[in-house]
Every structure is written in C-alpha cells, then in structure tokens.
Amino acid sequence: MFPSLFTEESVESFKCDVCQIAKHLRATYPSSDTKSVNPFALVHSDVWGPTSSSSISGAKWFVTFIDDCTRVTWVFLMKEKSEVFNLFVRFFRMIKTQFGK
C-alpha cells in the first residue's frame, strides 16, 4: 500500500511462520458416498486441544465420538489429554449398555 515506507526492506524480511503454515494445502480424504447402515458399526473420533483458555471446569481438551450411520456426536471435555482412553472406555460401555451394540 505504501511502498515508499519500505524502500530499505527486502521482501524476505516479511516472512511469517504462521502465514506460511496457513497457506499450506493439506491432503484431503478421498470422497466417499458410502455410509454405515447400522448404528455404531463405525465411530469416528477426534481429540482437540489444548486451548489457550480453559472452560469453567478447567478443561483445555475435548474428544468427540461421531456415529457414522446417524451422525450423532458426543463431546467430552478433558483437563488432560491423557483422559482420552478412560473416556473411550466409558463411551464404549455406554453404547453397549444403552444400545446393546
């Protein structure tokens, strides 16, 4: 916008790590029209965190479980990433008890 302000600077001095990472393209999963026909036959999961600020309960992480057939999503908040396994076991038992799957 104001080239006269930057006559002493080279273009290389304006490189920013965050800008470079944001411009990267990531590989996508191949498209698929298939969907699980039975609830809980396939469950997707993702872990996210840590956040820069914690929730009221002190959680900085969360894990999601998404049923491929129904797209119903469960979200569990965590204070530590190490809680994922115990939450998975809890989720597995809940599905087994409530849905018999």
Give the number of helices: 2
The fourth-level CATH homologous superfamily is Ribonuclease H-like superfamily/Ribonuclease H
Number of strands: 3
Point out poorly predicted stretches.
none
Largest sheet: 3 strands, antiparallel
Q: For the terminal residues, how far apart are their CA atoms?
A: 61 Å
Kindly name the structural category: alpha+beta
Write a compact overview of the structure shown.
With 101 residues, the protein is α+β, with helices and mostly antiparallel strands.
Short descriptors:
101 residues; alpha+beta; Nucleotidyltransferase, domain 5; three-stranded antiparallel β-sheet; 23% helix; elongated
Q: What does this 3D model show about the protein?
A:
There is one protein chain. The chain has a single domain, classed as Nucleotidyltransferase, domain 5, CATH 3.30.420.10. The mean pLDDT is 85. The chain is an alpha+beta fold. The protein is 23% helix and 19% strand. Strand 2 and strand 3 form a beta hairpin. The protein is built from two helices and three strands; from the N terminus they run H-E-E-E-H.
